[in-house]
Task: structure prediction
Amino acid sequence: MPTAKAFIAAVAGSAGALSGAWAARAWPERAVRFILPLGSGSGADVAARLIAAKLSARWGRLVMVENRPGVDGFVAAALFTEGHDDHALLFGPASAFTAHPYRYEKLPYDERDLSPIARVSATLVTVCVPASLGVDSLSGLVAMARAQPGKLGWATITGATDLIFAGFLKSAGLDMVKIPYEDTAKAVDDVAEGRLHVYHAALAIVRAQAQAGRVKIIAITASERAAALPDVPTVAESGFPALTFDGLVGIYGRREMPAGLRRRIAADIRTALSDPAIVSGLTATGQLVAPGSGSEFAAAIDKQRAGVARVAKVLGLKPMTGRLAVAGGGELV
Result:
């Protein structure tokens, strides 16, 4: 499987073959779209909207955010790759896409068209439960799940986090029921009402309900404790390192985008992320501002992909055969 670094090299190598029209045009010539695989309220959504406002002023063109959740991230990926819109960028967590090759034999998009432009942030991912469940720790949740096999339902945000949590369940010998959501960001309401027992999602999604006392955050999946939740232990501290996962958010462009334009966009993203107001906004939602170049983003994606590959092996995962038809509702055909 080609690595993200290989994609970057391929893009750079093909720069001389790009059409004169691409190279000669001033970009952007019109409104720019950020296409997201998650719904509103997610950490990536917050980051996209803050950065879009800053870039709109810098570029003199409107930068719009389009939330396109659904079908395991394929809706957004297919819209981006099949639209052939040179003013559309894919914005979101790498985890929405790194698990796809391990779950589906044929993808409805070409991986080479998800070419890293810039790293934006590291999203803080939580493990939370209904406050009414009476569980205060990850070990307490595990004990409850063992005492009630097949009784507790879980959900997680789109992509690799799904495999990470499934791998955790297998390594811990737990029997829990996965509850599917078209827009996983909406699951927090079911957690607050006690209809969903475990939710593995970004702090930005669960923060409001946690502050209202209806949702309890029992652990974070990051490698280290976070300033936003200083009293919440990591999953490793809680005794379950298999659930460790560092979120990664960034921006992708199409592979034919000129290298010079890619560097300029990355530089503008870095400038936007130096704004104290944006730093404050991202920090408030549990994100670590982590600007990086396309090659740095690619390296981080490769590291995450390697972790997903290890989990897929633990799970004995075999990609589903057939091609996913996103327009038809996500069926394999």
The chain has 13 helices and 14 strands.
